[in-house]
Amino acid sequence: MLNLYQKCSIIRVNLIQRLSQNHRPWLAIIVLMLGITLLGIMGGIIKHLGESYSSTFLAVARNIFGFVPVLMILIITKKTKSIFSLTGKKNTFLLILRGGSIACAQFCFYLALMKLEFATASTLVFAGPLFLTALSVPILGATVGVWRWAAVVIGFFGIVLIMDVGTNLFNVFALLPLGAAFGYALSSVLVKLFNSEVSSSLIQLYTQTITLVSAIVLLLAFSGYTPILSISDFFLIALMGIGGGCGVLCLITAYRMTEASIIASFEYFGIPVSIFLGWAFFAEFPMSKLFPGVFFIVGAGLLIIWREGKNNQGKNHQSLM
Known about the structure:
Strand content: under 5%
Largest sheet: none
Number of domains: 1
Helix content: over 70%
Number of strands: 0
Number of helices: 15
Structural class: mainly alpha
Shape: globular
Radius of gyration: 21 Å
Order of helices and strands: HHHHHHHHHHHHHHH
């Protein structure tokens, strides 16, 4: 058993560590919102280019240009020598599965952007936390209690409302964002199986390589190569890929700057961003379609975030005993 002095010392050290981790929460929030905005702009470019190019072609282009920010980070942090250090059968299997899931998610999401209203497609992808909660049980062996399962049910109800299931307004393409949400959620769960010593940029580099290969396979299987029609399209495609890559890195950086429970709810900033971009650039304003379903999806996500925060607080309290 620890004496009073030892307990006080542990509490003091733990408090200092938590303060050092959380001394930049506002900066983390700004970085997160910047990343979400960049990903929103990426989606807008994809919807615009979708009139001339297939979703598989844009996925390939997104991953090619997405290497630019990842390689820049590796060069700046002087970690280029560690590029070939991520080996082993387990890591290889995880990378292939993660890259494949992201490629399928990109295919579904990009096609959804072309077939649905921009805000509708973007909002339905926020079903990701619901899938992440469900997938964490078989993959990570996590224990999901009544609160989080209730959140999954509430979020699913919101999805049904937005999709107009059971009515004449139901669009089969509304299933595509759910496929994207599942793929992105699977990739998020799988990343937790890597050793904590492996850098995020290295995982991202390998994953993006496999995602690119998977996207090329999908391109050859479904549509084939499409020549770029103009210089302006080339610059838009480059901006899409680089902006998307920077957006992902912003999200990763933000979550490493502070605790997830502090900033996770700010991801829903993506919903008003998508509504604004859809209105400003595509003359879409599907408010009647999004409400009230969006409240159920956001509420379910916030409930999951709140419950995760409570669980983490309980674990931190037990570690001090």
